[in-house]
Structure formats: C-alpha cells, structure tokens
Amino acid sequence: MIRLASEDSSSRYGHLIPDLSATAVRRGRGNLATLLRRKLLYPVFQPIASLEDGSMYAHEALIRGPEESTLHNPDKLLQAAELENLNFEFENQCVLIAMERWGSLRQAGRLFLNISADALIQALQQCEFDSLITLAKELGVAPRMLVLEITEYERVADMDQLALAVREIRAAGVSLALDDFGDGRSSLRLWSQLKPEYVKIDKYFTKAISQHADKLKTIQALQQIAAIFGTALIAEGIETEDDLRVLRDLGIPYGQGYLLGRPERLPRVHIEPKARVTLRDRMVAVFPELRRTASAGSISRLAVIKAPYVKPTTTNDALARIFFEHPKLHSVAVVDETQPVAIINRSAFMNEYSKLYYREIWGHKSCMMHANMEPRVIERNHSVDDLVGILTSDDQRYLVDGFIVTDNGRYEGMGTGEQLVRSVTETRIEAARHANPLTFLPGNIPISQHIERLLASGVEFVACYADLNNFKPFNDQYGYWRGDEMIRLLANLCQAHCDPRRDFVGHVGGDDFILLYQSSNWQVQCEAIIAEFAQQARGLFDEAAREAGGIQADDRHGVPRFFPLTTLSIGAVIVNHDEFTNAEQVASVAARAKHDAKTSDKGLQIRVNKGMLLAHV
Fold first, then answer.
1. Tens digits of per-residue pLDDT, 347-393?
2. What CATH number has the domain spanning 42-280?
3. Assuming Cys at both sites, which of 19, 30, 93, 276 could form a disulfide with 34, CB separation 3.0 to 4.6 Å?
4. pTM over 0.70
C-alpha cells in the first residue's frame, strides 16, 4: 500500500498520465490520476462519539479533492476512480494520506479508515499489508488504534479470501468495522463470518427514528445480533436532538453525524455543544410506538385436535367405525394425498347411518356422498384479520362443522368453532396489551416499559391516571358507537396536551388512560384536558340532556336515577424514583389518586409520594 508514497507515485504513473498544471486542476480539467500523482487529495475527520456521555471516541478519515475542483466531492472522486480504473490506487493513497496527517497531528483516539473489501484482498495478495503496518508505526499511528472500515463488501465473490484478510488484520492488532449495514447490500452472513468489532448502522434507520417505530424495532433487532457476535454498534447520520436522545436511550454505544460534528480538516476535541447538552440531560426519550394493533399477525396458539382423517375412497362403514372409536370427534376431514378436500359432520352422518337398512344398502359405498366439498380450511399461520372475517361472515358453517387446520397446505388436524372464537379473542387481547385497537395508543406493556425506563433514569416525572365520570350510563344510553367517539375525544385531548418528545400517552383500556409527564407544565396541561373535555363532551349528548345537565339511566343495580354529564378525573403522582422500584407500584398509586379524584369530584388530585395527598384542584 505504500507504493503511492512520493517517490513511487511519479515513477509508477508517469508514463500513463499527462502532466497537467495546477491551474488546469483548479479549473476542473484535471483528472484523478493527476490528483493522485500531485498528491492534491487531503483528509478531513468526522468525530465518532460515545452516546453515553458525549466523549470523543474516534474519528473517521474522509477524503476530499481540491476545493475548487470538480473532484472535490467524495462521490465524484469515487466515480472518477471507477471511470479511470484507479480504484485500488485511489484507495491506497486515501489510506496513506489519512495516516500521514493523523500521525502528524499526534491525536488520541481511534482512526477509522475506509477501504473496500476488494482492495483489502488485493493488498493482502500483493503482500502490501505488512508495509502498511510498518508505515503506520513509522508515522506514529499505533495499529491497535486503527479501524479498517470495510466498504463495498457486497461485491466480494470469495468470502474465504476476505476472511483470510481479516485474520491478517487482527493479527496485526488492527480492528474491523462494517460500513452502512442495513442499506440493502449488507449481509448477515458476513457479519457472522467476520465478527467485526464495529458495525455502522446505515443512516436510513437512524434518520427520524424518533418518529418511526419500525426503524426503532429494526435497530433493537440489530442490537440483539450485536450482542451475539460481541459487536459495538455505531449509529450513522444523526442530525436531530430527538433522534440522538432515542439512540442514547436505546443503548447504542457510539454515534456519528452532523449533529455531533461535521467533517473538518482538524479533529475535534469535543462534539457540538447542542449534542453535548442533549446527551447529558436526564430527560428520557419517548419511543415511537406502532400506531396499529397486531391484528395482521398470525395465530400462534390455534388449538388443533390431532384427529384421524379419511380418504375419498373410505366407505361409510369405515367412517362410522372412526366416529364410534372417537366419540368426541365433531367432524372428520377428507384428505386426498396430503390436501384436505372436504369435511363430514358427525351428527349429520350418524343420523343417516342409523336409519333402517342404511348399512346394507350404503355401508360399502364411498363416504363422499356425505361430504361438504367447501370446508373451512385454516392455515396455522393464518392472519387474525382473516379469522375475524370468518367469524363475521354470513357463512357460519364453522359453528357446526368446525374447521380443518393445515400446515403449509398439508392436513394437520381439526378445530371447533369454539376454539376459533377463543383463539381470536386471546390474540386480540394480547395485541391490545401492546396497542389499543380503538385509539391505537400504546397499551399496558409499552406503558410499563416506559415507566421502568423513567425509574431507571432517576429523572423525576409525573404519572397521571385519567378516567371518565358517568361514562357507563352515557354508553348505555347512546350506544357503543358514540361511546367510542367519546373515548377517542379523550385520547385526542391527551395527545394534544402532551409534548411528544417528553411525555407519554397510553391507553390502559376502556376509558382509562395513563399520562407520563416529564414536562414541567404538566399541571396546566392536565387542567386544560379536564376543562376542554367537559366542554367538548357536551356535544356528544342530545339537546335535552344538555339542557337538563345529565341523563336518566339505570345504575349498576338497575335502579333508575339521574347522572350528570360525563366529565374527566385525573389522579397525579409526583414520582421520585427512590420511593418506587417498579412500574406496578407507580400504576397502583396513580390508580388510587384517580379514585380519590373521582370520589372528591375535584377534577385533578395530586400526590407527591405513595401516601401523601398534596392538593385538590
């Protein structure tokens, strides 16, 4: 790799490259070969920082052409290297001048150097890697502080050669990083085979991560893989404080991006002040949640009866023997080879089979005369939405016949209508624990997870439990449609009076909501929610009820009485992490505060700890 030192570069390319003046280069008429021979490329350094405390961890060396040249931009340089067939030579000089500059600056911290997988293999084959290590030491760059950032590894045809090159790298004390992982070209196999010390997460997944739950889930999956392989993740492309805070709270160890620091000729001592303030504040990021239920998921616990089946050639006598041997079997599937083609209902068949002279006339005939040729067939991984469609369709044969369960199209067993309803119900309940199907707000599990994160951070926060007063009489009087409209009204008001970057809104279920405030103006916001709900909820009542101030309805004991218009109560708890050890304790105290608020009819009730009442509002 050192062949592009000053003595070698002229002799190596002198017969290939015309002698262009520096003026021609500045005017944009120079080519890459000229820049290489005249050593007109220069490095800039972009910081890589610890997301735990904002300290400087490393710098990545990036290459630029002359500022007034058309080849100043790195993309243009790469295009020119490809066009002029100078990829290997270009990469060599980039590595050389970056090390020269870094060594002259006597900088602490690691230096990340970009090199393609092909160039790395070629350098190893030409025995130039040892020369690189020797040169690094001569320039004052310790090999253990070098990280080779592998790019364009998707082009490698011989993975074994790359693995050999990586072993040579590690033997010299140099670390390895994979660049832009997740950009569509990256390979989990490569990660597994090379086990790099660092993997850089492509900026597609980090950009606006504070607003996209799917990106957050993807990075959490990458964290699990990184833990298996012992790899440190580096988040690229960090440009906003909200994204930085989310990545910090996810536990991503290192980050890189314009918010932390742009590429500059001199390495930075500190990251940008704005990023440093963000990393050092104690505010916990509100993770984005999927604003839909998991209804598109599959039924994993679909009950299956391992029932025998019959063939189209099975006789009625043989089918009767199966039903006699299995008295609880409601139906039998007819299977041709491995695929179910029909279903025979037990009751319908046995009614016919028990008739006079049936066995003598029809006993040796095919059972297909009793078959329903349009059975309900359900795959083990059938989506919940499809199963709900079965339950709500006009065709209700599954209630009598049950259904046939298949695995990848092959017969698996039988199921009953009762089992189908139970499976769908259990899956819906489980989904609602993650996201409420009415408001799409986070359910119990994300609520608990966010409380645990708040407690772990040590930050002071306020847990508010919101519940409607006299909602059941309203729902009974006007029906579930208008009841749902009232719940959505409350959900919208809660979200409108919360800072999405600081405050968390969850829907426990029914008319119960949890608000977790880090904003200092939480009390003003709670009072606004109560007041605005009281005003807007009036519009959901009919005119007579508005004039009367309420409705006549039966109470829980069936006794008619007058109920005032629906209002909102909020119980608030100022949480000090020293007094609580888990989310359950916080939720329990908030629920008691809510109960006190409802019984006192004061709207907002505040507690400063587990037992002390602070104020009625």
1. 999 999 999 999 999 999 999 999 999 888 888 776 655 666 566 56
2. 3.20.20.450
3. 30
4. yes
